[in-house]
Amino acid sequence: MANIQIRKFRDDDAEAVKEIFTLGMSEHVPSSFMHLLKQPLTQMVLMCMFCALMTSSKSFLLPVLAVTLSLAGARQFVVYMFNRYIETSLRKDLNDISETYLKQKDSCFWVAESDGRVVGTVACLPAENAPECLELKRMSVCRSHRGMGIAKALCRTVGDFTRDRGYAAVVLYTSVVQTDAQKLYEHMGYEKIREFVVPEVPAKIMNFTLFEYRLDLHRDGKRGLKLT
């Protein structure tokens, strides 16, 4: 990695971090929309609508128009869900990173800097449901700087931080549509230990599955973070 530095977050990084997070999450709208269209319930509703309108109107144009408008509405629904998640995340921790991460015990937030520009982020804090673990959060790398090993370096930073503080493992959560992230984590030695559907009703409608990954940190070096 040429000219890449991993360092702790500073207050003047705040706007860059928010932009990277927002753009990164927005990239998943197309794949999430396709995921919604692949669901049997979605396909059944569209087919029933098309057949019912075709039968009642005796016209091909009306059902096609209705399905097209329904698809447009479905995409806006996906956009709305992601915008709501982004707003919630900003309000929950990214609007005050120093307070949420840097001032809390066993928590930290890092950025990857290239030629004076923030191009990647990652954070960790104690996992709510696993006292022996830290949770990796807010991993994102600018599209222009992907494929340079930045995400791997950020993962290693969290792993080293977790090991140094005596925790047994790192856990993280990623979604069914984040296939590149899943490949990265699995390459780094993480194992998928659980999958579940988000409890909110809109997520259940989309069958929006989350995966929980875990990386065990063994001091003997037999298992743990890969270095390549």
TrEMBL record:
Gene Ontology BP terms: axis elongation; chordate embryonic development
The transmembrane segments are: 61-82
Q: Which SUPFAM superfamilies match?
A: Acyl-CoA N-acyltransferases (Nat)
Q: Which UniProt keywords apply?
A: Membrane, Transferase, Transmembrane, Transmembrane helix
**Membrane among keywords:** yes
Q: Where is the signal peptide?
A: none
**Pfam families per the UniProt record, alphabetical:** Acetyltransf_1
Identify the residues that the record assigns to the N-acetyltransferase domain, covering every copy: 62-211
Is Glycosyltransferase among the key words of this record?
no
> Which InterPro entries does this UniProt record tie to the protein?
Acyl_CoA_acyltransferase (IPR016181), GNAT_dom (IPR000182), NAT_camello-type (IPR050769)
GO molecular function terms here? N-acetyltransferase activity
PANTHER family in UniProt: GNAT FAMILY N-ACETYLTRANSFERASE, N-ACETYLTRANSFERASE DOMAIN-CONTAINING PROTEIN
Name this polypeptide is given: N-acetyltransferase 8
Record organism:
Seriola lalandi dorsalis
